[in-house]
Design a protein that fits this description.
This protein is of the alpha/beta class and about 550 residues long. The chain has helices at about 30-65, 75-80, 105-110, 130-145, 195-215, 230-245, 260-265, 265-275, 285-295, 300-305, 320-335, 355-380, 390-400, 420, 430-450, 465-480, 495-510, 520-530, 540-545; strands spanning about 10-15, 15-20, 95-100, 120, 150, 160, 170-175, 180-190, 190-195, 220, 255-260, 280-285, 340-345, 380-385, 455-460, 460-465. Helix 1 (about 30-65) packs across helix 5 (about 195-215) and helix 6 runs parallel beside helix 8.
Amino acid sequence: MSAVMKESSAPRVAEGVAVLAPSPAQDALLTPGALAFLAGLHRRFEPARQARLAARVERQAFFDAGGLPDFRADTAAIRAGDWRVAPLPAALQDRRVEITGPTDPKMVINALNSGASCYMADFEDSTSPTWPNLLAGQHALRAAVAGTLEWTAPGPHGKHYALKPFAEQAVLIVRPRGWHLDEKHLSIDGRPLSASLFDAGLFAFHNAAALAAKDRGPYLYLPKLQSMEEAQLWNDVLDAVEHELGLAAGQIKVTVLIETLPAVFEMDEILHALRGRIAGLNCGRWDYVFSYIKTFRAHRGRALKSRVLPERGQVTMSQPFLKAYSELLIRTCHRRGAHAMGGMAAQIPIAGTSPADVEANAAAMARVQADKLREATAGHDGTWVAHPALVPLARAIFDQHMPGPNQHHVRRDDVQVTRDDLIKPSLGTITRAGFEGNVEVCVRYLAAWLDGQGCVPIHHLMEDAATAEIARAQLWQWLHCDGLSLDDDTPVDFALLERALINLPARLGDRTRLPGGSRINEAIGMLDRLTHADELVEFLTLPAYARLD
């Protein structure tokens, strides 16, 4: 731990509050009032957060012992009841295309100007949570809300970026980090603040009044929930935020990402817990795939083999367990008057002009188009893209198949999904290219993340923490399941991993051209340790966060 991270060297700004990495950039954000507000949230809700995290451990122990997730018997009345969520505000009626990305000033401007319906400003999977990144993100969003955000690229002829008029901007939705993460740079009574409370609380403290005056929320995307109780905790927190900031009850609207396997069995319950403020659920499919692997991590023998996923490229939404998940989400949301948002298209345009590049770009765009067509015709109310150039493509498809602002009338009463449908094994193979591709993605992304970049283009896909987690978890799963082979009959074992790691530096070539290239060796060492561990580490970002300043 560096000297600036020692509490003894940090200035005490209020009783029990310490900023552990002082920086001039924080002065306008971490005002005495803001710190008192965050400290109040911590003291009131930290015990409940810890209880919810302990409940996760207990539930995972049940799965590790061979148990299977299922619909809860104690909440059957909620699922059977005839109730609906609160009416949606005008700004969230039409969400047909949402763009997501980190919170640096250039991205914020480009996303708000992109022509998308909404922009999810992401402090979670797209942001490496260095202290400078977090502060810069909060500054950028505050300036964007005020309408003053501008940015000029470095250099004598750097391009200047400025916001379009407010009426032409995408609706801003902020995704804080999940309940499992701490913000180590801010200590309350000797304990780190919840990263969720830091991100959401600081954003609300500085921007809620201005956004409410514009009838724009504030709006949040809530990640990584596993239960209705975790949703209820968020509702209690946001009730308190509204009270402290003088907002109307229910002013803060939320959308919940269904990106864990346990949560798919509690979608009605999550909607019910947040029914006064929830706008919809989202198919966070990449984290959902990661959660599927993690849930069954300790199953042994035939049970484990039956749930080993094929290589990532074969785990598409046509896999039965993913198709069941997305269709049940649509049916559940529309029954309750909420949006059913589709998932991410990770492809990014290929800009080269060679015949090979043109052909590859056409194939990538065709995959995006097919994915968005599937979502629109299934009944989703909108979708996600990772690049501004994909906004027109996705919008054209939803405009054609969704002439109204949403598809709540598409009830999908034909969907009848059972527990077994949601955990049905997948079919597919593991190729050498798939195995080595997972190694490369994990190492390259982790190196960039450690260097402060949370969203990285790799082989024409925009990789973030969720996709890197799939790569990392799949490697662990494959290596800890006896008897697996590649499609060419090569055994999947640690010797195969060692060869891939040894060969990777030569495969990458000149590291200076790669994001985080100077940290490739560090990332290789981390991946080696994580894959050899007897148990699957809960989140890649937990040990990696300890290495950030």
